[in-house]
């Protein structure tokens, strides 16, 4: 299996598992919490069949990647992404992130620039800044995330069951947009994650990305459901669109957080249209 080494913890190498399929212009897809690259299966198939090169990888601590007890912050996640980009020598890339993966896209562009990037897509985004503070009154209370940490510490198996309820809005979508089998597969993927990473990633969600946003100088597509219960649209995608000049916003009516699965046809259509869209000269 293909791995890229991004560091070491004591005597063990920290290796990221990746998959690289197809040929043509590369599209790099970054998954959300607490999953790995396999959550992009509906997008990978479409991209490869459409003549693109589709690359996915598992974030440290998740999927088939190493499970260290360090590096669960967005500076490190962006450095890991940079290692993927440079090791595979990817150029003219469309960067695509879902949920937690949108933080990698944003911090990477803020820290490493767009020399290798053609355009970017963020689906159910975390940026610009989730935490409610004096200078961010539209954020979310710290107590909510403290509760997440308490639940994950107490019983992460129950925590993931509850998380998936809101990830897919199962009370309205189970048996319609998502099957019990798909939910079970996602739960199995979630519990395979590092217990340490499960906890350590939650504070990372409160990263302030506002200083990264002015550095985004490639076309940006934002896609989100207006029924997102994990990262509510008014606190995230709506504000991100307002903060990044020229960004394009697509809002999916009544759609939950996990739209790469529940609304794959919509995501694939918007993704393909955006990748094929001509960039104006000088943009």
Automatic annotation (TrEMBL):
Residues 26-263 form the AB hydrolase-1 domain. Keywords: Oxidoreductase, Peroxidase. It comes from the Bacteria. Transmembrane segments: none annotated. It holds the Pfam family Abhydrolase_1. GO terms for molecular function: peroxidase activity. InterPro entries: AB_hydrolase, AB_hydrolase_1, AB_hydrolase_fold, Epox_hydrolase-like. PANTHER family: HYDROLASE, ALPHA/BETA FOLD FAMILY PROTEIN, NON-HEME CHLOROPEROXIDASE-RELATED. Belongs to the AB hydrolase superfamily. Bacterial non-heme haloperoxidase / perhydrolase family. This is Non-heme chloroperoxidase.
């Amino acid at each position: 299996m293909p791995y890229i080494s991004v560091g070491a913890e004591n005597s063990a190498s920290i290796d990221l598992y990746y998959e690289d399929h197809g040929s043509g212009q590369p599209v790099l897809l970054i998954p959300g919490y607490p999953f790995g690259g396999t959550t992009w299966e509906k997008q990978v198939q479409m991209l490869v069949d459409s003549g693109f090169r589709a690359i996915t990888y598992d974030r440290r601590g998740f999927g088939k990647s190493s499970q260290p007890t360090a590096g669960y912050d967005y500076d490190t996640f962006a450095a890991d992404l940079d290692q993927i980009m440079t090791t595979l020598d990817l150029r003219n890339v469309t960067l695509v992130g879902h949920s937690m993966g949108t933080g990698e896209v944003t911090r990477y562009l803020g820290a490493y620039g767009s020399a290798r990037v053609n355009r970017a897509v963020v689906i159910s985004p975390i940026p610009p800044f989730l935490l409610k503070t004096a200078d961010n009154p539209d954020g979310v209370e710290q107590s909510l995330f403290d509760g997440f940490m308490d639940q994950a510490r107490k019983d992460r198996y129950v925590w993931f069951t509850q998380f998936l309820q809101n990830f897919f809005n199962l009370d309205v979508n189970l048996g319609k947009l998502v099957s019990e089998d798909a939910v079970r597969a996602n739960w199995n993927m979630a519990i395979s994650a590092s217990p340490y990473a499960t906890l350590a990633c939650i504070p990372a969600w409160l990263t302030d990305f506002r200083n990264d946003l002015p550095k985004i100088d490639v076309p940006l597509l934002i896609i989100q459901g207006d029924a997102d219960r994990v990262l509510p649209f008014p606190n995230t995608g709506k504000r991100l669109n307002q903060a990044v000049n020229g960004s394009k916003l697509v809002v999916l009516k009544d759609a939950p957080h996990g739209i790469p699965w529940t609304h794959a046809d919509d995501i694939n259509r918007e993704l393909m249209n955006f990748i094929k869209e001509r960039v104006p000269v000088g943009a």
